[in-house]
Every structure is written in structure tokens, then in C-alpha cells.
Amino acid sequence: MADTPTAPHGLLAGKTGIVFGALNESSLAWHIAEAIHREGGRFALTNAPVAQRLGEVDALAERTGAPVVWADATSADDLARLFDETTAHFGHGVDFIVHSIGMGFNVRKNRPYEDLNHEWFLKTLDVSAASLHRTITAGLKKDALNDGGSIVALSYVGAQRTFSRYSEMGDAKALLESIVRSYGYRLAARGIRINSVSQSPTKTSAGAGIKGFDLLYAFADTIAPMGNADSESCADYVVTLLSDYTRMVTMQNLFHDGGFAAMGVSDKLLEVLGEGLLKGQESSALKELFGDKDAPAG
Fold first, then answer.
1. E strand intervals along 156-257
2. What is the pTM for the complete model shown?
């Protein structure tokens, strides 16, 4: 769908937080940070130290006036320092956290699910899911989470359905969503809510590491009645979850995917697949959707 610029509404005026995972302009966290800035929120940017040479975080920091605190989200010491430096910068605790971190180490190496390197698998779970638990725990230990705050983690429908090439990341996102529910119960007494957003396949640096991602993207776009949700739309949605307007929404996995999660098949998908499946040959619609190079044989 066409991009529609969003006018500022001051939804996050006076709020401060931490945004994890911005790497470059294709990152969901990058767009979320820009939307938070537009809505009057202030934040620290953080990513793993390796991102200093791989990404463009300093440019985003300059654009939004945000401090950058390099921290490994799987390190308790780094997270403690992150909260120390962030609270010292703002002079108080944080009102929101955005967790947009994920890395499938076996996926990157094209290891099949039935032959995972289990050391890599555990690392995938640590980076992509347990880092959320570590982050919240560190914030609580530092008394750095303000009452009435909001935490949002980015997920994907592969946590609940099997997408063959998503492999171990499906397990990681399932764990992430479980942590959202488990910690949500424990944070509720302080009015802190936590939710995950199950976003459409999005053309990010992380997505580029999944073999066959372009086909996955086209498949979802074909089924979703509104098409895939783009990064800017996702950022706007996350802003609403960080705002006080959603103060009673917690422990939810919220689909932001153009309707994909509620669908079985669509007329467009049937049109695309029908001729090839029924006649045992590639259909013209398949070629139109995927191109001659990537179209699967009938």
C-alpha cells in the first residue's frame, strides 16, 4: 500500500526510553526510533558493539538527538551499564523499551532444522529471545523502569506457524512471546505493560539473511488482504503501544500484518497457484508474481 506520512501528535511527549536494534535505514528499530522522535519521545539507542562497524547508528543518533550506548544484550554487565548511562543522561528511569533484536545463526549458515548446530541454536535463543528477559531483569535490578511504562518486542507469525526456512527463528520468537506473557503478569502491579508485535515480512537486514525471503515476502503479500505492512506503518503502531492510549493492553501478541494471520487462502493466491498446480506447469500468474527466475515449477 502507498505510504501515508503521519503528522506528529505529541503522543510520547515527556517520555524517555531505550530503543534496541537500529542498524541502518532498513531496520524496523530505525523507523520506530524516528516515529518516537516525531511524537516527542526521547531515547537512547543501543546495539551490539559489532554494529559500530556494520551499521549507521551515529547518523540516526544525530538526526534524533539520541545518545548511543553500545551494549551486548546477552551480557548482564553491558545491560547494567546501559541502564546506568541512560538514567544518568535523562536524570530518571525510562518509560519505554523497544526490543527489536534477532539473529538466527543456523539460518545464516543454511543449516537445516533437523541438523542444527546446537551451540548456534542456543546462541540464537539467547540473542533473539532471552535478551528480552535479561533486559527487563537488568532494568528492574537498577530500578530504572518507571511505573506505567511500556515494553514492545518485535515478533513474527513464524512463532506460531511453521515456515520451513524460518527454522530455529520460529522457536526463538515463540520463546520471546512466552517471555512477554510471563513477565507481563509480573510487571502488571506497577502498571507496566508488555506486548509483542507480529510484523509482516519486512525487507530488513535481518530478513535478507533468510534463504528464499523474497518468495516468503511475495507469498505473505499475496494472502494478506491489505498486503504486507511496511516499516513506517509498524513504527506508527508501536508508537501507539508506547503511548498512554494503550495503558490497559498487555501480555498480547498483536498482529500487524495486513490481515495475513487471519487468512487461509486468497483469490489472488488461488489465481497464482491454480494453473500451475492443476495443470502441472508454471502459470503466467506465477511468472508475474515471482519472475521467471524464481518461479517454482508446477
1. 193-199, 253-256
2. 0.90
